[in-house]
Amino acid sequence: MTTPFSSLEDFVALPRLSGLVLNREGTRLVTSVATLNPKKTAYQTALWEVDPAGGQPARRLTRSSEGESGAAFLPSGDLLFTSARPDPDDADGEKRPALWRLPASGGESSLLLTREGGVGGVATAEAADVVVVTGTVLAGSANEEDDAERRKARKEAGVAAVLHSGYPVRYWDADLGPEEPRYFGLQDLGEDGDRSLADLIPSARGGLRDAHPVLSPDGSALFTSLTVPEERGSERTVLVRVDVATKESVVLLDDRGNDYAPGPVSPDGRYLAVIRDRRTRADLPPRTSLLLLPLEGGEPSELAGEWDRWPSPAAWLPDGSALVVTADDDGSAPVFVIDVSTGAVRRVTEDAAAYTDVRVSPDGRSAYALRSSYLFPPEVVRIDLASGSTERLPNPAERPELPGSLERVESAGEDGQPVRSWLVLPDGASAGAPVPALLWIHGGPIGSWNAWTWRWSPWIMAARGYAVLLPDPALSTGYGQHMVDRGWGQWGGAPYTDLMAATDGLVARDDIDGTRVAAMGGSFGGYMANWVAGHTDRFAAIVTHASLWALDQFGPTTDAAYYWEREMTPDMMSENSPHHHVANISTPMLVIHGDKDYRVPIGEGLRLWYELLSASKLPADDEGRTPHRFLYFPDENHWILKPQHARIWYGVVEAFLASHVLGEERDLPSELGL
Ligand SMILES: CC(=O)N[C@@H](C)C(=O)N[C@@H](C)C(=O)N[C@@H](C)C(=O)O
């Protein structure tokens, strides 16, 4: 059997689909496909068309070394997208993301809009030629010309400094300021049209950093979340409507107990679906709910409030009778339909898969979506909304061959709570040939192992003979509010004991060799790997990626300090901080961290490394030797994004595990230069 998971080169070269848009008539689907560039040092994306009827093979629509993304259809069927490909009329110009149009009638793409601050994304109205693009401006700019001049002056002077008066100053891997994101209404799309841009929320400051514009079907109104500062470095997210013609903006929902974000507008323009996220406190866990906001006036009402899941609204049925949503549910994320008059919830898709980017056909009978699971990466499917049956459409890529099988397993937590996991088993695992195993701990911690991920592929390890357990412990989504509540603010409690219960179930299996088991986790999963290291010696090795180590230090230095301050009091942080238990650590640890990680800053990795060498039970000896290792990426962030670095990541992890779990030595990737 040939599986791409045996070779890291083949694995990083697998095509990766993301995003899906449907034209107004429901006759064209477009998705984005990322593939390796010729040097194999970056991914480049191209747009592909998929036939909704399933009759035609997928075909590539765009081709440039700079790639294309952000596809959006105009009502005419023309396709808009963003790309930093060269402007044919300005071959020497600087490459920056611009807005392009591919005509429905065929032919070449043409450049629609270029601006000094680039074009980040595009939103179109369903039934009107209204386009809103996102892009940045320098905070002090008066207009586009002024912005261009200020950028030029800053660049020519070689100045990167930013003067802040507010919070935050960084976000994930981006330094914030003096650029601020804005929404621009594009006035005239005709061939020779005036491309003047209307800054729709000029007072937004940094508040659109994490926002997406949603347009009403007739294009008259734009809805967005807007993050507004609060006292003491905190912030909240309010819901805003902007009149696209007059630029008049109105705050629709704003209170200190919740954050709000817009979902889709009903086909008749009368209701807005709204996502409400409860603001947390140390004694109040998160809760996500769905609201219907009447746009002609009146109070919002909660939809399906009795349903013990956290819905994410995707689309309305064309007759406005129901909302199509997805929600995490027992290790998957199916499609559901919620009747808006009764709140009744009906599960549509029955398979154990995760659905995203759901688009509904104009007749309301079908939906199209990206679907993935641990058995296959994202692929385009058609869903029959009445029966729930799904059909995989002819896709830009085939499913990769897997080197093993997948099972759903369950253990009981200390309080009797079922703890559910996916278990990846390598080919050949049996009672007669038990295999070594890995416990993988997910991040968040509010999340679930329920969809394919390119970052942590269990099949890479299965191809090397390991079973991989993917448990959803306390704080995971898809198991009801109680599952979140029982872990809130006490990470070293139920989340840890649930993971140990799942591990007990794993090692009790006769196809698993319980003497050869390691634990691994990233981000919050790395926090937990560190906690595991200080509380048990049952694992042969531990891999901790982008991990939280000293919570008193992490809290104020992460990019969103207020978020963490709302979960734990200083006493709770101290009680749950792994660094207090360094003296108990007797397991070899592989620490991995990227220097540009602003979510879990590098200080966590540096301090963990030093304290492992100086204070664990396996300190560096008098010649500096230690079983611990530190894999440091100076130019990566919270994730390892460059394909060559992903290969190194898997290669070093594999060698470390082979040494400590299997007792075998492996060559390290030669590019490490060791
Ligand atoms: C504001 C905030 O911190 N949100 C959390 C979702 C978060 O970023 N948590 C990280 C520590 C984390 O665990 N991230 C996960 C999603 C990951 O796998 O990287």
Automatic annotation (TrEMBL):
Keywords: Acetylation, Hydrolase, Signal
Occurrences of domain Peptidase S9 prolyl oligopeptidase catalytic (ranges): 452-661
Pfam families tied to this protein: Peptidase_S9 (PF00326)
Disordered: annotated segments: 54-97, 387-414
The keyword Isomerase is assigned to this record: no
Stated role: This enzyme catalyzes the hydrolysis of the N-terminal peptide bond of an N-acetylated peptide to generate an N-acetylated amino acid and a peptide with a free N-terminus. It preferentially cleaves off Ac-Ala, Ac-Met and Ac-Ser. Also, involved in the degradation of oxidized and glycated proteins.
Protein known as: Acyl-peptide hydrolase
